[in-house]
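Continuing the series of single-chain predictions for the mutant panel. This is the parent chain; the variants come on the following pages.
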Amino acid sequence: MQRLLPPLLLVVTWAAMTLVSLTWPPGEPFAAPLRRVGGVVSALGLLLSVKGARIFRHVGTNIMTFDKPDKLVTSGLFAWSRNPMYLGFALCALGGAVALGAMSAVGIAILFCITLDRWYVGFEERMMRETFGAEYDAYCRKVRRWL
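Parent structure:
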């Protein structure tokens, strides 16, 4: 699991959601207008993740999940959320599940979000705390994990 990077897990999640939405269970529990909203939320989530990645590139910091962090980014999107890229991935998956119109897809999206929160964010927060100590703790008191 440690080698599975979050963007790849998002692609796997989307593939699984698409497969189950086509095969099990039949039916469309979400009305067409809600499905369109889900599509918009999914696209906005993807844009949020891309914007977060661009901020990392702009400040010249490491974006790789399992590598040691080298800079504490607290500006831009990171002044509002400690994890805007993961928030974007979560919105992309949840919005996509609604857009696909299957409750089974929503279940997969929820599992994806739990994995983001418990595995990836948990790991990164431990690394950030080890690397930046009190500075990171102060940032955590000021900025929420998600929103």
